[in-house]
Amino acid sequence: MAAARWMLRWVAAAAAAVAAALALDNGLARTPPMGWLHWERFLCATDCAAEPRRCVSEQLFVEMADRMVAEGWRDAGYEFICIDDCWMAPTRDKQGRLQADPKRFPGGIRKLADYVHSKGLKLGIYSDVGSKTCAGFPGSYNHYDLDAQTFASWGVDLLKFDGCNSESLELLAEGYRRMSVALNRTGRSIVYSCEWPFYLRPVQQPNYTEIKQYCNHWRNFYDVYDSWSSIKSILDWTALHQDTIVKIAGPGGWNDPDMLVIGNFGLSWDQSVTQMAMWAIMAAPLFMSNDLRHISPEAKWLLQNKEVIAINQDPLGKQGYQLSKDKNFQLWERPLSDRAYAVAVLNQQEIGGPQKFTFSLTFLGNGLACNPACSIRQVLPASRDCGVYSWISSLSVEVNPTGTVLLKVLPL
């Protein structure tokens, strides 16, 4: 019996060693990555003659990189300039390598990466686990090692790996694993952004423990749109599944609710505040998809808000969660470093005017956030000190329809 137990322990230890060897241990994304991604705003615009300002081209990314530096985005923490789908030529080259469209990217990706790096920024790129990308360009199926080597040779710093056109869930999973291993083998630090669980969910429950072994962040839900209904659906889905997804997030691996669409056309000011506040609560990667050449001062202030970014980037790395839902109000909290908490009060009502929401501070942090006392600061929609409160106090906040009040609670 003792020998059998020893053998079982040995087998378990060997299995753990194999899992550790395969686990993603690239030292990256210790806090949620931040940057700019072209997809939601610019989609698959490829006619540079007809639409030179919208076209997915070398010029677009150079101009965005210039704005990232000149307008303070890099200094605020947004470090990645990310190319999404539609950058490729329709076919691979004679050596079987992916290649950029020669008309839209005349210098190739290596030249663009060098330019982005010269600005103190990092370059992200896109490919797909299947035979073709979602837009029909060449995918990485059967080319994982070659494509990883190609991206590394170009100086790429992040790969967004989509899940279209895979023939089976087994091939999908194998492809995500193989690309992760291939990226690590290159010796270059490349953040790995996956859509693996999103493509699994219609058929089976994702194994998030495995996904985190291979990916730095991962999409769970549909693409974000430039609309309040899209933001609301993402938040509703996250709250519904929080028991599954919140616990797996942390340094090196994050749930990704998709891009920030603040600064575009579809969100009101209060809805923009809600997206920024809730993405901070959810410890979400912050990838803007907007036109930094044409963005309002208000949107810029919100996206560059240091207090909100500090909450998002908190080194403790715990994702927030919904504490309660009361008619139209939702109360969320996120544990932060040094026993602090971020708290969000979201008003989902879409009619009428501002409404007050009152809650007991004993709700927060399992009763510990304000025990015996705390100071509370409002971060959004405007920054102000709310004062000092005792453990048994209640707090009232006034929240606009579809808006959010974001608070920071500091123990005394």
TrEMBL record:
Matching InterPro entries: Aldolase_TIM, GH, Glyco_hydro_27, Glyco_hydro_27/36_CS, Glyco_hydro_b, Melibiase/NAGA_C
Annotated keywords: Disulfide bond, Glycoprotein, Glycosidase, Hydrolase, Lipid metabolism, Lysosome, Signal
Gene3D superfamilies: Aldolase class I (3.20.20.70), Golgi alpha-mannosidase II (2.60.40.1180)
PROSITE patterns in alphabetical order: ALPHA_GALACTOSIDASE
Locations listed in the record: Lysosome
RNA-binding found in the keyword field: no
Top-level taxon: Eukaryota
The protein's enzyme class: hydrolase
Pfam family, one: Melibiase_2
EC number(s) reported in the record: 3.2.1.-
GO molecular function terms attached to this record: alpha-galactosidase activity
One cellular component term from this protein's GO annotations in UniProt: membrane
GO BP of this protein: glycoside catabolic process; glycosphingolipid catabolic process; oligosaccharide metabolic process
Catalytic activity: Hydrolysis of terminal, non-reducing alpha-D-galactose residues in alpha-D-galactosides, including galactose oligosaccharides, galactomannans and galactolipids; a globoside Gb3Cer (d18:1(4E)) + H2O = a beta-D-Gal-(1->4)-beta-D-Glc-(1<->1)-Cer(d18:1(4E)) + D-galactose; a globoside Gb3Cer + H2O = a beta-D-galactosyl-(1->4)-beta-D-glucosyl-(1<->1)-ceramide + D-galactose
Chief location of this protein within or outside the cell: other
Domain Alpha galactosidase A C-terminal, first and last residues per copy: 317-403
SUPFAM superfamilies linked: (Trans)glycosidases, Glycosyl hydrolase domain
Family: Belongs to the glycosyl hydrolase 27 family.
Physiological role: Catalyzes the hydrolysis of glycosphingolipids and participates in their degradation in the lysosome.
Assembly and oligomerization: Homodimer.
Protein name: Alpha-galactosidase
Species of the source: Geospiza parvula (Small tree-finch)
